[in-house]
Amino acid sequence: MTDEKTDDARLELRLTGSAHRRKGYAKAVVSCMARKLHAQGFPVYCYIDEENTASYRLFKSLGFIEDPSYRAAWSE
């Protein structure tokens, strides 16, 4: 998804149904979209909830690195 107002792009993951987990679908989609966004000049990054170990492992396996200096604080 691109935002014309900010020249930003983002890829949001949603819950995968249990019957479709661990089949590589998310890895294929994220990998493809990250390459396309990067090729178009968009920075490619993600925010992952600390409790979401599955997403953390997915992004680490794709070469994403953790940057402790770049953390978002969410308020309710």
What does this structure look like?
- The chain has 76 residues and is mainly alpha-helical.
- The protein has 2 helices and 2 strands, in the order E-E-H-H.
- The protein has helices spanning 25-39, 53-61; strands at 2-3, 8-9.
- A hairpin with a 4-residue loop joins strand 1 and strand 2.
- The mean pLDDT is 81.
Query: How many angstroms does the end-to-end distance come to?
Result: 25 Å
Strand content: 5-15%
Rg on CA atoms, Å? 13 Å
Compute the number of strand runs.
2
Q: What's the shape?
A: globular
Provide the low-confidence segments as ranges: none
Spatial arrangement of strands, main beta sheet: 1-2
Q: What structural class do you assign from the helix and strand content?
A: mainly alpha
Helix/strand order: EEHH
Q: What oligomeric arrangement do these chains adopt?
A: single chain
Helix content: 25-40%
Q: What integer is the average pLDDT?
A: 81
Count of runs of 4 or more consecutive helical residues: 2
Largest sheet: 2 strands, antiparallel
